[in-house]
Specification:
Elements: E1 8-9, E2 15-16, H1 19-25, E3 33-38, E4 41-46, H2 50-57, H3 65-80
Antiparallel strand pairs: 1-2, 3-4
């Protein structure tokens, strides 16, 4: 799928998305996104929660909050590679 949408840049460099983009990507208010700089430009992706990533892989485990956060960061880095 390829969708091209014109966006606005604010006076301080903020990039404003549209409701259409947020709906397509599943981005809700107060959610983090990941920005990846590529040779072709800027790629913005929703940051998946560790729960989403584990469910996708069919993994069920019990871990501490600290272990959870570390694993989440590692998985996010892996996805971006």
């Amino acid at each position: 799928m390829r969708t091209i949408v014109k966006l606005k840049v604010g006076s301080k460099g903020e990039i404003y998305t549209t409701k259409e983009i947020r709906k397509i990507l599943g981005i809700e208010g107060a959610r983090e996104v990941i920005a990846v700089i590529t040779k072709d430009g800027l790629l913005i992706k929703p940051r998946r929660s560790i729960e989403d990533l584990l469910k996708k892989r069919g993994v069920k485990i019990e871990i501490t909050v600290e272990e959870f956060e570390k694993l989440s960061e590692e998985i996010q880095e892996e996805i971006l590679k």
